[in-house]
């Protein structure tokens, strides 16, 4: 028996993408799922679709429960192609179906696919009756695109949340408690840090709009369905949306001849002496999308690079480009590095910290060629000084 029935007449009919490892720059080391849902009522509704190349997976799942040609409503909560990619092929099977979407959704679907489908544009507060159930819509712009919306089924207490509350995780399990909180929280945090982080204000608005809903299930468009950890994940989202982080430190760096690495280690020893949990991430061996989980989680961020050709090492250049796009806020920053001549890398990192409007209580640490014992002792003390700032900082 397939584990796709969520409630009586409601089924997960999505696709598991076991092989995807790069999701526009996000390392999806465990693959992902594109979740579509089928609501079988007097009118049959398909909630979102899957990436175009996995259309057959979705159709074979739908066919277990209904004849796909009998679908009345195709509900598009979000235009991005991981969810809309199979709409054109689906609409060839159901040319008379109504495509329910937001105003921006209609525009986006027309721009992507150029088709004259029977669009029904909805907005927050609108409802559509499917027989014994009601589709109730809430616009959630920028979570993740301007068109994004979520759909609530009050009779079933189900929220189809699309990208919100998602995790990139390919798994045969369908529910959060089948994997456990620590696993799903880790993947939900990485997802938030890499996809949703720039949109804290909009997440706050969405959480406020959803706060009165009675929820038994949150069905996102990636990963497992939330049923046991709904209070926990909504509390995490609230914290992340407010850019609250733990009093932990993250040292992210790259090194040419181990000088910057030695400074990183000395900074870590100073921080650890104060009992501050400190994570070291070497850009040579860690993917920037993994490091973003540490950024989300840590209040103090130390960034180190040697100077190469009057600038940053390319790995650090890539990291700060990614970081500036994701705009984490409310951090304490610090820059360090080493150089032979020139020494511009530390200045570039300090500029990045300023651009992000992070607090920068201590001037950057820049060592010529190789740090000696005094330099490393100075780096250790600087680590302690930064740690004191961290401990004295607000939440
Ligand atoms: Fe999962 Fe914004 O698409």
Condensed summary:
By secondary structure, the protein is of the alpha/beta class. It is built from twelve helices and 21 strands. Helix content is 35%, strand content 23%.
Describe the structure.
This protein has helices at residues 55-63, 81-84, 87-93, 103-113, 181-196, 200-210, 230-241, 259-273, 288-297, 314-326, 344-355, 373-392, and strands at residues 5-7, 10-12, 15-17, 22-23, 26-27, 32-34, 37-40, 44-47, 73-75, 98-101, 118-121, 127-129, 134-139, 149-153, 158-162, 217-220, 246-253, 278-282, 298-304, 332-339, 365-368. It is α/β, with parallel strands linked by helices and 395 residues long. It folds into two domains: 5-241, Metallo-beta-lactamase, Chain A, CATH 3.60.15.10; 249-387, Rossmann fold. The protein has a seven-stranded mixed beta sheet. A five-stranded mixed beta sheet has the order 12-13-14-15-16. Helix 10 (314-326) links the parallel strand 19 and strand 20. Helix 6 (200-210) packs antiparallel against helix 7. The longest helix is centred in the last third of the chain and has 20 residues, at 373-392. It starts with a strand and ends with a helix. The model has no long low-confidence stretch (mean pLDDT 97). The structure holds MU-OXO-diiron. The site of MU-OXO-diiron has 9 residues, from helix 2.
